[in-house]
Request: fold
Amino acid sequence: MDKLVIEGGRRLEGTVEISGAKNSSLPILAATVLSKEKSIIRNVPQVADVFTMVKILKSLGAKVLHTGNTVEVDPSGIRNPVLTYKIVSTMRGSICFLGPLLARFRSAQISFPGGCVIGPRPIDLHIKGVKALGADITLEHGYVLAKTKELKGTRIYLGGAFGSSVLGTGNVMMAATMAKGKTVIVNAACEPEVVDLGNFLKKMGAKISGLGSPSIEIEGVKKLSGANYSIIPDRIEAGTYMIAAAITKGDVTIKNFDLSLLGAMLDKMRDAGVSITEKNGHVRVRREKKLKPISVTTLPYPGYPTDLQAQMMALMCVVPGISVITEKIYPERFMHVSELNRMGASIILEGPSAIVSGNKKLSGAPVMASDLRASAGLVVAGLVAEGTTEISRIYHLDRGYENLVAKLQHLGAKIRREKDLR
Reply:
């Protein structure tokens, strides 16, 4: 097992290029099984979750050629739509095969998925959606067993306890592409990754309208073709580097990135006093003055993303004053709080809110990553902490950040990866 070792106090400067969106790549790779023809997906990040998706596709019987940031999928050889526990236990995103397998094969057998430990992440909306389309669902021995004689379009409300579901919306949208008649998804997720998936499906021949709005309409077609498609940049990776620039009093330019993908995160950064400018498609992030404490509430897009909550909390730890960070998507997503406090932060949890009393400095310490984005928050904190920070269990980071160490080193960080001998 590896760990990250960070010598804090280095100002980040220079240019960084953002990889393709992990949260787009997973459902788009799953969507390739909707057709019998080959699809070519470009700008796919080289991260562990993508490697898992490739393994799943191969286990189903697809021929997959993964070269650099391009994945070619020939799904014509898929015969048995079964995903076993062994291969899906590490990644919740594997549930996004439910919709496309049902649409093409009229059946699917998928083990309950795994993933980050950030509180309950039920798949009830996925099941509700495909049931509304006409699937029979049973839960046996840890598996979701789904089958149907025919999927039929209908009106589906996908509201959950904490708002819309990104993967749930994607799953229903994929299943509906070949359902008979029209499907309307009400309270659909508006995230850019849902739009990205929808645009890929449209290139395959799907008839979809309303992408990016809470109401998506899908007119079913009899079959879909393969497609050649390029994934959008990863807004969570971009946001992480923006916060890293701010916490180190840096000056970082992000190449070829659309700021509109960030939604409320952009406003919150500017509210805190971070300078963010855009020119010719490049985004420059600078910290030119003292930052101010802010209040942040995570919400579905275009609200502040839950996947940037831990990173923003790390930044507020070194901003004098009181900041309040409220988690409305995953109320238990505060595993990083105790680790940040080990580094000298002053954070108190009050229900779904973290009260951050900002200090002028953090100190390096051995800390442990609990999930993907909590890991990123600890990296951000380590960049500015005095002394050495050692982050263990960094396999979480490998799930969502491509070449993180190399990119940070290029920007001037003193960071390395080494074996954890403990």
